[in-house]
């Protein structure tokens, strides 16, 4: 596995490793989970909050803004009262579907080898 050539004019901290680039974009505690929940459906902000009960409103807002900035999530605002905002994956975001499925499957196998339930004490999701 090689590295990606540094594009002309790239910032000094350019991550030349494709895995590092991927983790920079979707890494962190919440981005992958947000992407996973948006993988097959459009959700409103509060529906995402309910799906992720341990995330704060501030953190969800921040993560959604970053995913939108990186072109993975689309935010659609409807001119209604009260305001209606929906989130879904862009085409670029949908390109992560195989990776998200692989991460899900790997996580289930990892949990199974340790004899714990996802989200229980002793699992990484706890």
Automatic annotation (TrEMBL):
Record InterPro entries: HTH_HxlR (IPR002577), WH-like_DNA-bd_sf (IPR036388), WH_DNA-bd_sf (IPR036390)
Keyword hit for Transcription: yes
Domain of life (superkingdom): Bacteria
GO molecular function, one term: DNA binding
Keywords: DNA-binding, Transcription, Transcription regulation
Keyword DNA-binding: yes
Domain HTH hxlR-type: 17-115
Protein name as it appears in the record: Putative HTH-type transcriptional regulator YdeP
Gene: ydeP
């Amino acid at each position: 596995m090689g590295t990606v050539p540094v594009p002309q004019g790239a910032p000094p901290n350019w991550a030349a490793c494709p895995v590092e680039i991927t983790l920079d974009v979707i890494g962190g505690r919440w981005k992958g989970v947000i992407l996973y929940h948006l993988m097959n459906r459009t959700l409103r902000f509060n529906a995402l909050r309910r799906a992720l009960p341990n995330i704060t409103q501030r953190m969800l807002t921040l993560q959604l803004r970053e995913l939108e900035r990186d072109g993975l999530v689309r935010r659609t605002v409807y001119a209604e009262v009260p305001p209606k905002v929906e989130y879904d994956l862009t085409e670029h975001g949908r390109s992560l579907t195989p990776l998200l499925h692989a991460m899900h499957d790997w996580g289930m196998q990892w949990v199974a080898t340790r004899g714990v339930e996802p989200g229980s004490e002793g699992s990484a999701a706890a």
